[in-house]
Design a protein that fits this description.
The protein is mostly helical. It has seven helices and no strands. The radius of gyration is 27 Å and the shape is elongated.
Length: about 210
């Protein structure tokens, strides 16, 4: 098992999604307690109300992981595979933990009498009474502006924006001393490619020739 940068990125995103799921549950629990419900009923309602949001977010992420694994793998984007596998497994584990394990833990603590009465929870920000739905048109416009700016920048840069993970192929970095000479000349991309193509076996020559044409 190798630890790659795409795998680390998937692990970090998994942690973020796990935290988000538990935040949703705790916020619903806080709201149910503010309504005057007991601990057991507040926990039950909190999980029921948070389930749809958690389920939708995780299933959508799993679909994206499937796309990254099966579709991009076919076009030679192997490094993305580690990201898709790590994120997909992490999403399934975190969803099971947040919806099943934590609920079982709350139920067990409630039955043992460890959770009773009004449970105080840390409140960092004050409560805001904002009707966000009335401002949806403003958010749509702002989102459209950012999406348009992103698409324009992507088109203007072109294929240079894709790294080796998405463009496929190989990336080689060679470091030379300041006074090194190849064939009596300072090393250039053309000289280095000719040297590599002329001193490797047939399979590597074919691969490097393919890179040379890109």
């Amino acid at each position: 098992v190798e630890l790659s940068l795409p795998g680390i990125a998937g692990l970090i995103l998994t942690i973020g999604m796990a935290v988000d799921a538990n935040v949703l549950i705790f916020e619903r629990f806080r709201e149910e307690q503010d309504r005057g419900l007991g601990v057991a009923m507040a926990i039950k309602n909190a999980y029921e109300q948070a389930f749809s949001a958690i389920f939708d977010a995780n299933v959508t992420t799993l679909l994206v992981c499937g796309f990254l694994y099966y579709v991009l793998e076919m076009v030679g984007m192997q490094p993305v595979r580690g990201f898709a596998i790590t994120l997909g497994l992490g999403v399934m584990f975190s969803m099971f933990t947040s919806l099943v394990v934590t609920r079982w833990s709350f139920a067990a603590m409630t039955q043992m009498g460890l959770l009773k009465g009004q449970i105080k929870m840390l409140s960092v920000f004050p409560k805001f009474n904002v009707n966000w739905m009335t401002k949806r048109y403003l958010f749509w416009v702002v989102s459209l502006v950012f999406m348009t700016a992103g698409l324009i920048s992507l088109v203007s840069v072109g294929g240079k924006v894709f790294g080796v993970e998405f463009a496929a192929g190989a990336k080689v970095t060679l470091a030379f001393n300041d006074d090194v000479l190849l064939d009596g000349k300072l090393p250039t991309d053309a000289i280095i490619r000719d040297r590599l193509l002329g001193k490797t076996d047939g399979a590597v020559q074919t691969y490097l020739a393919k890179i040379n044409t890109q």
